[in-house]
Amino acid sequence: MYEEFYEITNWIEINTKSDQPRYSELVASNNYVKDYESIYASACPDMEQSEFTQDPSKVGGIDLTASKVGNNKIVFGGKINWYAEDKSLGRAEGNQVGVQIKPADGVLDEYPQMQIKIGNKVYTKDAFESSGVLWYYPLITKDSKRFVVNMEWNENNKEKFIIEILPGTVLKTKDDPTNVEVGG
């Protein structure tokens, strides 16, 4: 298999008593460089925060580890599967991981003018499936380490979701005999 190289050794959450967003600090060890990163937790004073998880079909493969950090960050490590192009899914060939974002019930109807920003692209609430879930499958390359999804419901309610790839993560190739597509 592979050596698990990411372990959360200390998690500190600081809740302020003001209107400021909540901040959290992660301390990681082992082969991952010690990282004392303040993670911006989404500021949504007027609504419940969206649920952010790895996609249930586990795109990325069985040799992939996914660690959730707070409410707004998922860190992937291990080995990431290679996937063939699938035009019906809008999927380019290459290595991918999958996440899902699910707003609380009724939020999409309450904020119809919301926007989603991923890289240089802007999407509307039409990017959500009829079930109310946004699926995101970033294409992972040797140079890609971090992906950010910004959701702006209105001027007061904004969420930021982070997908991070750990140093040392292996990208399987098309011809890798252990490359098994999970969740297709």
Written overview of the protein:
There is one protein chain. The protein is mainly β and 184 residues long. Helices cover 2% and strands 41% of the residues. The chain contains 1 helix and 16 strands. Strands 5, 6, 10, 11, 14, 15 and 16 form a 7-stranded mixed beta sheet that branches. A 3-stranded antiparallel beta sheet has the order 1-2-3, with no helix packed on it. Strands 4-9-12 form a 3-stranded antiparallel beta sheet, with no helix packed on it. A hairpin with a 2-residue loop joins strand 10 and strand 11. The longest helix has 4 residues. The chain is elongated. The two termini are 21 Å apart.
